[in-house]
Amino acid sequence: MTQKRYEALTPINHDGEGYAIGADIELDGKHADSLLAVNAIKPKEAAADNAGSDTSGKVVQLKTKTTESADEPTTPIGRQAEIVKAIAKLDADSMAHWTKDKKPDVSALNEILGWAVKVTAAERDAAWAMLQPKDSA
User: Is 50 helix (H, G, I), strand (E, B) or coil?
Assistant: First the structure.
């Protein structure tokens, strides 16, 4: 099938890659039709014609191959909960799993989670802070 260029109107996960709003994405007709139906993409030629389209913060998941990111959360709270679980899976004795500041290594978390949209240091820090003992002063 021939592929056409589109502009992402919402964050999209396709074939294990994340596409941000405004990113170019090449799709065949089969995959494009479902995204066009929910206004998640627009043809690249028509990009200027559709200004003001409703993007309401939806994240559209388009899976065409099986990846570990099949259950990738789309909300910040969902992502944080999964990052906390991933931290619990790290090997406390493996230097590769921890930074010199004794924080979970972002690369190790990304390897465990296998998400298309990678864990950021800020997300790691927020999840790590939840696991730290609270001062009882």
Answer: coil
